[in-house]
Amino acid sequence: xxxxxxxxxEDPGISAAAVGQESGLDFLRGVLDGRLPxxxxxxxxxxxxEEVDFGRAVFVLEPGEDHYNPIGSVHGGxxxxxxxxxxxxxxxxxxxxxxxxxxxxxxxxxxxxxxxDTGKVRAVGSLLNHGRRTALAQAELLDSDDRLLAHATxxxxxxxxxxx
Length: 164
Prior knowledge:
By secondary structure, the protein is of the alpha+beta class.
């Protein structure tokens, strides 16, 4: 039996042009309230930013069959994408205007399988430490009962963003 999924996204150039023009927290709040387009990867995978605060970001996903690997559970790349987004945005949320970031690495530990029966999952990212050039964040992937499904740490490089 064939299945399909259709999705749409907005121009990512709009958000990319806004990076560094305001604080990272204000940028993420703009995504959250719809003033700025969300990243197309969210539409592709089916997750979205649900909450953001200084040093913290939360993404949510309702797992579907379209996330499955060949053995009938959510593919590890989906876990990694959620965890990378949450950890990275936790870092972005502390950046002043004029600064950007990119992930340098991501270390993921898979602890439990996810299926459609798992229900909504949350990737909760939090800043651990930062300096002038790098930041360290972690993220936890949790089910609706707050059971830990996976954990990740990420190092991010911080850099100045050219004005305008």
